[in-house]
Design a protein that fits this description.
The protein is an alpha/beta fold and 370 residues long. The protein is 39% helix and 12% strand. α4 packs parallel to α6 (119-133) and α6 packs parallel to α7 (153-162).
Length: 370
Amino acid sequence: MKIGTFDVWPPVVLAPMAGITNIGFRTLCREQGGGLFVSEMITSRALVERVPLTFQMIRFGEAETPRSIQLYGVDPKIIGRAARMISEEGLADHIDLNFGCPVPKVTRRGGGSALPYKRNLLRAILKEAVAGAGSLPVTMKMRKGIDDDHLTYVQAGRTAVEEGLAAVALHARTARQHYGGTADWDAIRRLKDAVPEIPVLGNGDIWSADDALRMVAETGCDGVVIGRGCLGRPWLFRDLDRAFEGSAERTRPTLGEVGAMMLRHAGLLCEVVGSERHGLADFRKHVGWYLKGFVVGADTRRALTSVSTLTELAGRIGELDGDLPWPDEADGPRGKSGERSKVALPHGWLDDPDDATVPGAGAEDATSGG
């Protein structure tokens, strides 16, 4: 798969996830297998205003190439300025635009997955982003639409082609579905049929390497985007490497091997944060994902999430039964789930899809998703 001038093999992209895909987690995933590994989402306004935290979020490792940033915004001019900064200051090699966030505090202000309904505004954003990025490839990630009555993905895909984007990715759910229900892989196939000129990447319900192969076979998509499937499962990228090379070998780690991966992950987070206490606090949310399916008592889980040093974490991990085999219950969904009864939107948002009025700055909340 080519994205601009970059060859991406295997054709796998790590989805940006807020609080997850920092340099530590990306390093861990890159140690397992290949692909394109995208930073946490950053807002275009925070970038052009040079907010220090934003620049911490876009740090890359020396070996990371291509360096990929996901950019989010609602104002074409601000997006254009941010893309120009990234290009002229050498901040990254690839820009991905986020139009997939379904979080109510974003959509109720006209941002995230609500924005593509305003087709002229979407076109203006894409045009400014491509112009600002110069030679850097620009891609976008989106959802099917607001709900089943307001689908936007095919038209948005055609707009992406017309404005010079290098690829499009579709999370095959609507904003109303949030992370619930089943991803509509048929929509990925329809998008690929409508957008043959550039790569189309599929996202949604890929929990294993075999799911990825099945998505490509059923939809004809050019690659896959991995989000919740790698939570507590960074070795999924190892399996994806093998799968796309034609190997049937898959990783089935023992609890001891999972524990070693947990310790490696926690150590990387401590390096990123610069503090064991704060790094381990950040690691707490990963513990349940790593241990899903294993018979590990509540007291042990609490102990693993209350440590304050890596030495203490190593000791707690050493107390686990390292010989426990990989349980069948360990496979399957992790992370957020559940549908919404409706999508929060600005008053009158659905009245005129041609309206190109720029939403206020409140729509640029630094909440990732998609």
